[in-house]
Amino acid sequence: MNDYLTKHPHFITFLLLFSLFASLTTSLTAQSLEGAMKKQGLVDIQTVDPSILVELKYSTTDNFVGKDVYGDLTRAYMQPMAAQKLASASRALQARHPDLRLLVYDAARPRKAQWNLWNALPELAEGERQKYVADPRKGSIHNYGCAVDLTVATKEGKPLDMGTKYDFFGELAYPSEEERLLKAGKLTKQQVENRRILRTAMRAGGFSSIEFEWWHFNALSREKAKMMFRIVD
Fold first, then answer.
1. What is the pTM of this model?
2. If you count Cβ atoms within 10 Å of the first and of the last residue's Cβ in the chain, which end, N or C, has fewer?
3. Alpha-helical regions (H) of 44-146
4. What are phi and psi of 16, to 5 degrees?
5. Contact 109, 143 (CB under 8 A)
6. 178-224 tens-digit pLDDT
7. What is the pLDDT of residues 73-103, one digit of tens each?
8. Half-sphere exposure (CA, 13 Å, Cβ side) for 227?
9. Contact, 209 vs 216, CB < 8 A?
């Protein structure tokens, strides 16, 4: 290989240019996502409350798709009113548990990313798929900047044990089934209590939870979000 590179220095130039192009493409993807959100008035939640931790799971491969959906996007955006509600939830959490923090896994999500998630579950019928990923044709509350996926973590960023990973598809993640799963020994008392700590804080901030995902909370209903905001494409 070294002999080849010595005889073909132009190949080295090609590799360098390709690497630079790939890096720029990723950067531009993140900039385009942020640009789309800023253009519609969304705000970086950490500018509203710097104590909130952020680890965007769709900017990693640690998600149900197994792929990086957001590129190098690292900041979480929401509508200003939703970001203020999240800051209120953060204060409520820290008032009860000073050593704990909210850790955001996903916030505003452009619809083009919603399509990637929707198409990642072809084995599920659409009716079943909508339990876990909103139909992009209708729009997710995430697509309006009014939903957030998150957990509770230590100040150092270590997530509490919630019984399942983020994006787990199945009844173990269902808040509606926690009491039954606890009695059956499939969830522990501490795991259920950790979920209650999260829900208590989020409800204090004005968010509502959903039936199938312990990590998902809405600042508004989809109907109100559609009335008040444009979808982020």
1. 0.83
2. N
3. 45-48, 80-96, 111-118, 126-129
4. -65, -45
5. yes
6. 999 999 999 999 999 999 999 999 999 999 999 999 999 999 999 99
7. 889 999 999 999 999 999 999 999 999 999 9
8. 5
9. yes
